[in-house]
Design goal:
mainly alpha; 309 residues
Length: 309
């Protein structure tokens, strides 16, 4: 297989994420459908969290087994487990502290926290919009915050859009590791395995696109095609980049780091979506959506399992 053909396959595996993105342009559905879509996204991401952690811990366990049997180095195990721990912490806590920093930048003394305000606006976008208009028309506090505050990167995005970007980022980190697997298989001459991985990862990514845009179902204004394209590039583009890197150079520690970073960011997003689910209600639909989302993740993963991973 030529380099061009391999890169084309890597691009195809990442491009399937775009199949679910048009769902983000649905007219604002009823609250029950919003709750179900949000729950299905949680289910997909919960499976993805399990899948990412399993692949990240596997080489760490192998290093531990080899060190315990005397066939490996304890230093290697220590290095890998340290990489996993640090990367997982960075993936999760960096988003936590970034949100705290952003809250302090825009918070008003005596007001609710930024996270609480974001979740409330995801739940009731019309009421949030009316409140925003009212705050701009009346009161000196509104002028101080809304009119006089300088523009900041990402400040123009709605809470749902910011959540979609976070989901795409976490999935992108995970997809980079998938690209590494494709490139590494081809570099070893295992062409049939590489092709099978492309098929499996392609099916997997098609469900991830839906998970990215699920928060946008709460928006009164449909997202632009340009924004959806950006989400697709953030989430699917790393598959292609990983294929390029994996064909030329693969390092176990780097792979673990990217998987752990992805796991941390996905865990943060799952917690945020659970908060949204609690606000929306519909507990029965929440459980059905969770179940179907997890099952969809396993269904698309069966092909990857057949490849021997």
């Amino acid at each position: 297989m030529s380099t061009g053909e391999l890169l084309a396959l890597g691009a195809i595996a990442g491009a399937t994420i775009f199949l679910g993105l048009p769902m983000g342009r649905m007219r604002r559905p009823r609250p029950a459908l919003q709750a179900f879509l949000n729950a299905a996204a949680i289910g997909i991401l919960t499976f993805l969290l399990y899948d990412v952690l399993a692949h990240a811990v596997e080489p760490v366990n192998e290093a531990l087994t080899r060190a315990h049997s005397g066939h490996g180095s304890w230093w290697r195990f220590t290095g890998l487990v340290s990489t996993f721990t640090v990367a997982l912490g960075v993936g999760l806590l960096s988003l936590v502290y970034f949100d705290r920093w952003r809250s302090r930048r825009v918070a008003v003394p005596g007001s609710a926290s930024r996270v609480e305000a974001d979740i409330d606006r995801v739940e009731k976008p019309e009421e949030a919009g009316e409140a925003t208009v009212a705050s701009r028309r009346f009161g000196p506090g509104a002028a101080a915050v809304e009119e006089l505050a300088p523009d900041r990167p990402g400040h123009h995005l709605s809470p749902a859009a910011r959540l979609a970007v976070l989901i795409a980022t976490g999935i992108g980190l995970h997809n980079f590791s998938e690209g590494l697997a494709i490139g590494q298989s081809a570099a070893k001459g295992e062409i049939s395995l590489a092709v099978l991985l492309v098929i499996g990862f392609g099916l997997h990514n098609s469900t991830e696109g839906f998970g990215i845009v699920a928060p946008l179902a709460t928006e009164a204004v449909r997202p632009s095609w340009r924004f959806l394209l950006t989400l697709g590039l953030i989430g699917g583009g790393p598959t292609f980049l990983g294929t390029v890197v994996g064909q030329a150079w693969v390092n176990t520690g780097v792979s673990i780091a990217f998987l752990a970073l992805a796991a941390g960011s996905i865990l943060y997003v799952v917690v945020q979506l659970l908060w949204v689910a609690q606000k929306l209600g519909f507990r029965e639909l929440l459980m059905w959506g969770l179940l179907l989302g997890v099952l969809a993740g396993f269904a698309t993963d069966f092909v990857i399992t057949a490849a021997g991973l």
